[in-house]
């Protein structure tokens, strides 16, 4: 799809792009060279178009995602995904539900697998982990997740991706209605029974239960919930790309849709490895002491 994109040309939007395709100008290679035949847009516009397409081609050859993202309108950044899938980072966050919305659990999924960052454990390592990937994929992450993380870590420390595909807006354009979980259910990739109906406020309560009582089971449940929010985005990205290509009636290879079965073992492994920290044990000791006082009273 990227090689068939013309909306980086000034004055070319979705409808003009379709007109170019209908004229047989399917790819950048098809755009008429100077002095050959009738202009595709106009003589002046064609000259500018060739310049912009040349920059696009050079950026793709260099694998310069930032340059491509600056050329191509953000609403069409989903088209870049197949060419940069190895650089993709799928992520989601949970917060403490307070006014400042501090992140509590953040899950990442990339070509190396799953990664979890927890406040009070390893959250400080998150910016470096996210900076390692150039293409971010989220659901409402441009409006919520990324701003929350930027406020928490500070502008100077939190990275800026070379491109960020927000699937909330991509799926809306494709008429895939609802939030992330509703879309998952409609695609037949819903969550296991114990996670059905769990929402963002439940995530806040689970975190507070963990903080108040050192309840590691609450933390494990929260982490599992957040991990699904992250790796399910890979499936949704694949489906959305294929549907976008279908909508545009483009003869490009469709992506194999990610099978989450590949990571479910890793999810279980991460959850089981979440043991109590020294602070958790101190909390448990305090609660148990209070419980004994209550029984003695």
TrEMBL record:
InterPro entries to which the protein is assigned, alphabetical: RNaseH-like_sf, YprB_RNase_H-like_dom
Limits of the YprB ribonuclease H-like domain: 89-240
Top-level taxon in the UniProt lineage: Bacteria
Pfam families membership: RNase_H_2
Alphabetical list of PANTHER family matching this protein: EXONUCLEASE-LIKE PROTEIN (PTHR38462), YPRB RIBONUCLEASE H-LIKE DOMAIN-CONTAINING PROTEIN (PTHR38462:SF1)
Record protein name field: Ribonuclease H-like domain-containing protein
Native source species: Hyalangium rubrum
